Amino acid sequence: MIAFILRRLAAGVVLVLVVTALTFFLVYAGGNDIAFRILGDGATPEAAAELAQRLGLDRPVPVQYWDWLTGAVSGDFGQSFFGPEQVGATLAIRIPVTLSLVAVSIVLTAVLGIVLGVSSARRGGTLDRATQVVSVVGFALPSYWIALVLVLTVALPFPRLFPATGYVAPDVSTTGWVLSIALPSIALTIGGVATIAQQVRGSMVDTLRLDYIRTLRSRGIPERAIVYRHALRNSAGPALTVLSLQFIGMLGGAIIIERVFALPGIGTLAATASLRGDIPVVMGVVAFAVFVVVVVNLLADITQGLLNPKVRVGS
Amino acid sequence: MTEPMVPISTVPTVERAGLWRRLIGRPVASISLAVLAIWVLLAVLSPWITPYSPDATSLDATNAAPNAVNWLGGDRSGRDILSRLIAGAGDALESTLIATAVAIAIGVTAGLVAGYYGRAIDSIASWVANILIALPGVIILIALYAAVGSSTRIAMVALGVLLAPNFFRLTRGLVIGVRNELYVDAARVSGLGDARIIGRHVLSAVRAPVIVQAAFAAGVAISLQAGLAFLGLSENNKASWGAMLQEGFANLYIAPLQIVWPGLALGIVVSALVLLGNALRDTLEGARPRPRRRGESGRLRRVIDPAEEGDDALLTLSGLSVAYPTRKGTTTVVDDVSLEVRRGEIVGLVGESGSGKTQTAFSVLGLLPEEAIVTSGVLTFRTRRPRSGTVRLLGRSVAYIPQEPMSNLDPTFTIGAQLMYGIRAATGRSRAQARREALALLERVGIPDPARTFASYPHQISGGMAQRVLIAGAVASDPELLIADEPTTALDVTVQAEILALLHGLQKERDMGVLLVTHNFGVVADLCDRVVVMRQGRVVETGTTIDVFQRPRAEYTKELLGAILDVDVVRERVDSEEGRVAAAESSAAGTKGAGSR
Amino acid sequence: MSVLDIHGLKVAYGHGRRRAEVVHGVTLSVAEGETLGLVGESGSGKTTIGRAVLGLVAPSEGTVRAAGHEVTAGMRTAARRALARDVQVVFQDPYTSLNPALTVADTLAEPLVAQGRGRAEARAAVAELLARVRLPADAGRRYPREFSGGQRQRVAIARALALRPKLIVCDEPVSALDLSTQAVILDLLIDIQQSTGVGYLFISHDLTVVRHISHRVAVMHRGAIVESGPTRRITEHPDHPYTRRLLLASPLPDPVAQAERRSEWERVRATTSTGTLLEF
To answer: CB distance B189–C56 less than 8 Å?
Structure first.
């Protein structure tokens, strides 16, 4: 088991390095062009060269990457091209907003998805059909689309209840926080719940048809125990895989939804920075995203390993 | 944004010809296809059918509500919304095609190669795919925009690369599945080269799932591209649904209708793609099994009586009939079967495949699958257990030993945990007591190191040991009737001999009645006191073992016994005179029994 | 004239620490027109040997010569095509050894197609093959799922015969079939051998089946041959204790005879010390 964890940890580190390196090389390959973009149309080659030198953009890219990496490890992501703000500081303010949104959404998704999936698998009938229909709809439509619909149908008519824009930090006012992320997280959750519920339902229905379930029934074990103690445990693995994929998707979806609800998270930060060409900020966002994804995947993998006896005790 | 996942795991064995027709037959599929066809048509014809140029501005049209001039109204720059919508259709189609084509080209090719050739190529490709899948697409595309600017085409190629791993995993999985099939081995033995094997056997299995995945991928591509445009990261002034969403959003309080049109277009097209994908997948795989309530139709009428003094009747089954629904009606698998098991006797239920013997056994246990319909039958059980309220037979007085040892143990619990749980469910003992009993049982069934097996997981023990564990679990509740479904068919013959001896010993010890389902006449001869012969759902003969073997009365029984390979027949070497004679004799003797089949 | 010569064959799976040898130095041969029965339980290595003869698994040591061809796993396409003309296979599972998406005619034509024969020739050959295994002529148009297990196995046998091989590896060809079908398929195989002179490497776990069709028998246990010789001797008066156990463990379909065998089994078991008690 330890070997398993170490291997996954190493894989995670490699992933972070590879992705940040590739992205860095991609965005910093421009060199002088970057300086041109910052200065705008009327820039002269000399001004661009001078700016490039000041920002260190004329150095070979691997050197720049190494500098960036060593800085990033200690939390220093450099300085924005367009102002005095430290990228690290900006990220520190904005990350909690995005994270709180995604965290709430994923928890809601997991809980609702599992509950719906299990009931759907056990009872069948109208609940099952309804879940299936909602699933397809939720799965098909992008979360930002659902967010826009929510704005149109809920936030506009009821502006005092659900704010269409703005974010209230949880330490300022809990109810305020809940209300401000209610609609965004609903938008994110709807698509996710659909997929998870479908997955759990499918897994459960398949598992309940397996041989050992029949043998357990023959031992006189009550149906309740069979579903919750045995079937659910065996269905957990695939559900977890889908959940971690959902998380990645939600991160992307949150980026766009923040724009819809004017939440001051890294989504709006990234979009603005990208439009301007504020590359250090973009790198910071990418680094954050990859790091979060790696951590989540690592946790998911370890949980999977714990759930799977073949990994836990070896064969 | 959700990444699409197509959980197709089996190679589709559906006939190709009827596929299209069946797909159209589903209303969801035909409507989606129609919607998509309209979309493609509009997109292709867009340069010619827009009422106005998508970029043409007109002061009168600024933020205009829908009217006779601008059917859907005008946006904040005074451009005709309808024209921009149609032009957007073209943009959406082009983007989707690029992204999906790139994803398929890279993903499917890599999947085919990695899946077929395996090893190094597979490891590297899988590693790359895992990295790509772990990336949040939106963020990467944002970074890309920062690097190379606003070209939609480049962004779509990048998106294709990000979507490729889904196709890679799908294709690779299918190829590996097919690669391990015996018919691929046979093709290789026939001398077919790798390329032709891939073309002939593998591609046909891959084609349909890839199309399903393509539908989902196309939906994702449109959504993502529109999302990026919504954030402002797209080519300036190019008419696209995402850009229209952005503009409409900015005007939300001024003219809320502006955001509705592109929203509807986007929603409809994406939904159509996903629904089509779903319908296609359902058509391929057949409908996925639906959960159904275990209705009364699946249960046999039971009568539980106390055992009478001096009477060793245990189980009496009368007139059992079981049927299953088919597309055209129902098919009967058990037809008016009656049998009896007495205390302390082993009854063999014998027949070939399709005889209904297993169905009969499951009916007695009450473990038929949900679709089964018991059309008639009464089961009478005479128990020596004191009656207190409702007597539950299953797991207490009646126990079951399954056929396949490994698939009948829950892989996520230790052997000990499973045994203990079963004991406690049946007898209500405490944990400590149940543990002691479980260990004692493991020892009784002949497991050499009970404590070690107790702590092991199913994947750590052999098939023979697993079957012993299952037997232990069955006798744990001290049942009066044991029903064994081909308990040794999956085992080696030397292990089989041990297990049969074990069953015999346990049966004598506990004075149990046993219903043993088998197709092996040797097992019947070894263990059974009486025999019930079944054929195509009916009982054709019953009697003591000696009677049925030595004086069979039914034609079918005679046929079956005749078809058993005569142990006196031996093949001899053919190159000696004596050998040739013996060979002639043996081949003549060997061709008895059933006619040509 | 031998159609199969195996010398000191060793096969191992896995790499590094997980490497496990499943066949430990096996030597055997099959003469023209002869059936060698290879008997063993699971883990004996018999199936691996069959796959090695077909070139589906690589030997780690030793040689395999089939009908004059040297068989290795990394054979080039041309060499493999040449081998295919002389060595063919009938697998155990009639449900997965035929591609369910291809018609019977397509499956039967496959070996011919692989050899580059033309369409007309293939079609004629298919008709002849179907007749040889006593399947109706219109079977070619149908799909495997329309046939029973025994009938599918006939198709598999027909496919094996398509190129008129000198050796056919039969890997448990009747184990998955019903009782009444087993005898019929075995007799078909014997019939074919007598009229074409093809040799069989007949792999099975069932002594009775092996007895019925093999001229000679080799018994395998845990990757090695423990005993071999003429069928009658091996299956009636074996020398090796494992063969004896195997024999005694196979139940006889005759209650009186089986009762005797069972007592003999118990006697032997009681007198065998636990030290030599083999696999569970």
So the answer is: yes
Do residue C179 and residue B519 have CB atoms under 8 angstroms apart? yes
Looking at the domain assignment, is residue B417 inside a domain? no
Interface subset of A 147-206, CB within 8 angstroms of B:
148-149, 151-152, 156, 191-192, 194-195, 199, 201-202, 205-206
The domain segmentation of chain C, as residue ranges, is 2-249
- Interface confidence, given as ipTM, is 0.90
User: What is the fold, at CATH topology level, of the domain defined by C2-249?
Assistant: Rossmann fold (3.40.50)
CA distance A291 to A217: 45
Range of the domain at B530: 348-365+392-397+479-595
For every residue of A138-202, which 3-state class applies, written as one string? HHHCCHHHHHHHHHHHHHCCCCCCCCCCCCCCCCCCHHHHHHHHHHHHHHHHHHHHHHHHHHHHH
Interface of B with C in 466-495 (CB under 8 A): 492-495
Closest chain B residue by Cα to residue C92: B182
Residue B342 lies in a domain: no
Torsion, Cα of A189, A191, A197, A202 (10° steps) = -160
- Residue B293's pLDDT band (cuts 50, 70, 90): low
Global pTM reads: 0.85
Q: With the C-alpha atoms ordered C203, C204, C210, C213, is the resulting torsion angle positive or negative?
A: negative
Instruction: Specify the DSSP element, H or E, that contains C25.
Output: strand C20-31
Residue B395 sits at the chain A interface (C-beta within 8 Å): yes
Domain end: B284, B310, B336, which one?
Answer: B284
Q: B242 lies in a domain? A: yes
* Chains adjacent to A (≥3 CB pairs closer than 8 angstroms): B
Q: Which of A144-158, A159-173, A251-265, C129-143 has the lowest mean pLDDT?
A: A159-173
| pLDDT-based confidence at residue A8 (cuts at 50, 70, 90) | confident
Residue ranges of B 171-230 with Cβ closer than 8 A to chain A: 219, 223-224, 226-227, 230
Give the Cα separation of B494 and C39 in Å (integer).
13
What's residue B593's pLDDT? 37
Q: Identify whether residues B255 and B353 lie together within a single domain.
A: no
Tokens encoding C190: 């014997």
Put residue B486 in one of left, alpha, beta given phi > 0 → left and psi -120 to 50 → alpha: left
Same domain, B238 and B354: no
State phi, psi for B11 to the nearest 5 degrees.
-75, 125
B-C Cβ pairs (cutoff 8 Å, strict): 215
Tell me which chain B residues have a C-beta less than 8 angstroms from the C-beta of C82: 191
Q: Of B229, B251, B284, which one is at a domain's C-terminal end?
A: B284
Residue B459 pLDDT > 60: yes
CB A221 within 8 A of CB B417: no
Chain C positions touching B498 (Cβ under 8 A) are 280
Assign residue B99 the CATH number of its domain: 1.10.3720.10
B191 to chain C: which residues are within 8 Å by CB? 77, 80-85, 111, 114-115
B565 and chain C: CB distance < 8 Å anywhere?
Answer: yes
Same domain for B355 and B207: no
